[in-house]
């Protein structure tokens, strides 16, 4: 399940180079269909959006009612709700410190010089299926900045709204939610909801869609590839912190990768066992196992 590379090995540098080169080259995914989706939705709006949602997600519901959202939130585990509340308060407190003051200055010649920050009026946030943290990280700074309208695009899974995402949206006072995903969601935000800027992570199709709508709307300024995490740990690091970081990263995308760097080989063994235990609790165990085989590597810095 997990590859282990020992830096004490004579072939370490060769293996590391192969590992990194393979990661950088990645698997090229054909995203040519994205251009067709963008053009179709730009021209035919909601009719085209529904067509692609039916095709890719078997979804007919584009805008959930408030009753459907409330019912979804009622199903949420109180522990998850509490965790979202906790995250919200921390994120809000931190980003409040980023708020920049306007500058007004009158020089000795009576010239009035002003530097004013004006918030974007409309922002679209793309939230992958089960990531309420993405919503919080994008919507909270927008709220603090003074954005008047935030539209969230969140795909449904097996015909169901994600309760955690719905609760996070309510917490952030988001009034508009569209239940669609992929390139069609990005096109909808750009040409149906007509936001000024689109933020939020996604797979290769989402990234390509954001590239194509850029110019008609703003984007973050970078096109993110598959996400990854590098964890440096010793024998004093909490095992649960390592395991949850790895599993949390793995749910993002099939090309997501986690790397653990440690001097303690016994720690790797403990992590492997803890991952196996936690996988039994997850509904998408098979998906996680596929990702481990394709893109996971643990580096052991010594034989200890």
Describe this structure in words.
The chain has two domains: 11-26 and 226-300, Rossmann fold, CATH 3.40.50; 33-96 and 117-213, Nitrogenase molybdenum iron protein domain (Rossmann fold, 3-Layer(aba) Sandwich). Strand 8 (228-233), helix 9 and strand 9 (257-262) form a beta-alpha-beta unit. Helix content is 49%, strand content 14%. The chain has 304 residues and is of the alpha/beta class. The mean pLDDT is 87.
Overall helicity: 40-55%
CATH C-level category of the largest domain: Alpha Beta
Q: Give the biggest beta sheet.
A: 4 strands, parallel
Gyration radius, in Å: 22 Å
User: What would the principal axes of the Cα set say about the shape?
Assistant: globular
Q: What are the main properties of this structure?
A:
four-stranded parallel β-sheet, 11 helices, 49% helix, Rossmann fold, 2 domains
Secondary structure elements and pairings:
Elements: E1 3-6, H1 12-25, H2 33-57, H3 66-74, H4 78-96, E2 103-106, E3 112-115, E4 122-126, H5 132-145, E5 149-153, H6 163-171, E6 176-178, H7 182-191, E7 197-199, H8 204-213, E8 228-233, H9 239-250, E9 257-262, H10 265-279, H11 285-295, E10 297-300
Parallel strand pairs: 1-10, 4-5, 4-7, 5-6, 8-9, 9-10
Antiparallel strand pairs: 2-3
Helix pairs in contact: 2-7, 3-6, 4-5, 4-6, 5-6, 7-8, 9-10
